[in-house]
Automatic annotation (TrEMBL):
Name the UniProt record assigns to this protein: Cof-type HAD-IIB family hydrolase
Pfam families, sorted: Hydrolase_3
Keyword list, A-Z: Hydrolase
Transmembrane segments: none
Gene3D superfamilies for the chain: 3.30.1240.10, HAD superfamily/HAD-like (3.40.50.1000)
Keyword Hydrolase: yes
InterPro entries xref list: Cof, HAD-like_sf, HAD-SF_hydro_IIB, HAD_sf
NCBIfam families assigned to the protein according to its UniProt record, in alphabetical order: Cof-subfamily, HAD-SF-IIB
PANTHER family reported for this sequence: PHOSPHATASE YKRA-RELATED, PHOSPHOSERINE PHOSPHATASE
GO CC term (a single one): cytosol
SUPFAM superfamilies: HAD-like
GO terms for MF: magnesium ion binding; phosphatase activity
């Protein structure tokens, strides 16, 4: 490719595997692409607090977090549509009343509820193993969330979304009924086998973030590539001129993608960059 492209990459399951392992080939691909004049952005459900140094040290042109509600480019925060603090209080109160353990995803940190570490061990084990990663009896919530903060005030003004453990699928149905006007999702499984629910502001997704960047940076959507692995990534693949699914992704995103590359652990990102001439 002789043109300069904007490349948008999901993080979990695309840039890193579900053991949080970052392949060296992915680092190499991003650095070579940027050296060739292309722009590379991470687009993730993670809040800024989860963008650990290992990822930031790759060198990126921008970061989109909270599945679209926070946008940073060239080390400048361009947008942050946090959940209003009164709504954060409403969500936390509802979860307490339902005896649901949760964690608050804020730019300043991840804040776990009182019993999340204990209650979440089995749920996190099922989530990780569902992504093909083997665990043993030593596995803990801390393996998945090494910087989770416990005992702090959960009601904050920089919250992107709040995830909670589903005791039953009915908890998700109750949340969708109660939190009208919000975006309520499940993750970590399909349908009634989902492990988590989450609550975020309505009307925001990875596509709306890319549309914001298009207007703000005057980028040409005809020279955009989006790479992802999950249903939540589909809106940005639909927006981009080229949509790429990784081989370990779900069947739904692979069916709609323009191209399916290899799995994360099989140098999928590097191979996609090579295929499209970014490197």
């Amino acid at each position: 490719m002789t043109e300069n492209w904007h490349v948008f990459i999901d993080v979990d399951g695309t840039l890193v595997d579900y053991n949080n392992h970052l392949p060296e080939s992915a680092v190499q691909a991003i650095r070579e692409a940027r050296a060739n004049g292309h722009k590379v952005y991470a687009v993730t459900g993670r809040s800024k607090a989860e963008m650990y140094d290992e990822i930031l040290d790759i060198g990126l042109d921008g970061y989109i977090g909270g599945n679209g509600n926070y946008i940073e480019a060239d080390n400048e925060a361009l947008m942050h549509l946090a959940i209003p603090i009164e709504d954060v209080q409403k969500i936390v109160n509802w979860l307490h009343d339902k005896n649901l353990e949760y964690y608050v995803e804020a730019n300043s940190g991840l804040y776990g509820s009182q019993n999340f570490r204990e209650r979440g061990k089995e749920t996190m084990r099922l989530y990780v193993e569902g992504k093909g990663v083997k665990t043993d009896e030593t596995f803990s919530v801390d393996d998945g969330f090494p910087q989770m903060i416990y005992g702090a005030e959960p009601v904050r003004d920089d919250v992107n979304k709040i995830s909670f453990i589903l005791n039953t699928y009915q908890d998700y149905l109750d949340a969708t009924e109660y939190f009208t006007g919000f975006q309520v999702n499940t993750w970590g499984g399909k349908g009634e086998h989902a492990l988590f629910g989450d609550v975020a502001r309505g009307g925001i997704n990875k596509r709306t973030a890319l549309e914001f960047l298009e207007a703000h940076h005057q980028l040409d959507p005809n020279y955009t590539i989006a790479i992802g692995d999950a249903k939540v990534d589909i809106p940005m693949l639909e927006y981009a001129a080229v949509g790429v699914a990784v081989g370990n992704g779900g069947e739904e995103i692979k069916a709609m993608a323009d191209y399916v590359t290899d799995a994360v652990s099989d140098d999928g990102l590097y191979n996609a960059f090579k295929h499209f001439g970014l490197i």
